[in-house]
Design a protein that fits this description.
The chain is of the alpha+beta class. The chain has a seven-stranded mixed beta sheet, with no helix packed on it. The radius of gyration is 23 Å and the shape is globular.
Length: 332
Amino acid sequence: MSGRPATSDERQAIDAEASACVARLQGELSAADRQTVYDWIAADPRHAVAFARAEAAWEMSQRLCADPPAIGEIPRTGDDALALLLSRRGLMGGLLAASTAGVVATAAWRYEKDVQLYRTQIGERRTVVLSDGSRVQLNTGSTIEVAMTRAARKIRLVRGEALFEVAHNKARPFLVDAGTAQLRAVGTAFNVRIRDEVVELTVTEGVVAVTSGGKAIRGVAAAPHIAAGGGAVIRPGAVAPTQLDQAEMRQRAAWREGVIELDGETLAQAVEEFNRYRAAPIILGDARLATIRVGGRFEVHEADKFILALETGFPIRAMPASDGSLLLVARP
């Protein structure tokens, strides 16, 4: 791996190989041939960047054929094409901050055969039954990709939150990739939530093996094990197990009943929870309000009752805006 900038000749060679890799992945490849491509991408950060650029250019050409953009939207350079494509997907910041491992993982998922996509809109919940009998419950604003093979059952939680109830099958491990967290289970049930900076795991049944940092799980023995009644907070390269009491377990699973349970959370945390189910957010207009501790049990769509409770119990006033959002300010 090299940290120095590529020379002009080196960049041309890397770009040419990246384009060749993208072209190869459009056809039928053996597992070994696909792995050769992924190994080349992982060998050098410059390879990963070149591959992302080449793939974006290829996708842009396909999209232009199917959906020509307005004249003012036509990109003039390859980098502009990459920026336009990624901004349409809402992924610009994520890719620019991604590691080489993240690019490789994305490529691997993209070219898995028979990948199924399931998602929920804001405020929606959905249950998906997989071909092996496993069940996945998706919370609001969530997306998963599913690739079922003879060797493994692979799930990628792209965003949001999901509860996995895994059908027992030791011969086909159940693997969940949640960005910085890689999870492995055989027959168990566990909840995974992607937050801004961490991934939150809650195990309700069985045992889940956890790794972090973009490394594939090669075996459960080498990974931390989280048993039923426990959880973990996962950041890149770090797994912090936590023991949860019954109240905390119930609180984390409350969304399955369409409920938000608050028990001493700060107002900032409570607002974050309600905003997951709202198209128009609740906004804290005064930083002094953020640390107020609140409690209660509310339906996920009962933000109005939550706001009424705030205005009744605290010196807080809610000011509605024309777009449906609510601004919380301190009442004189």
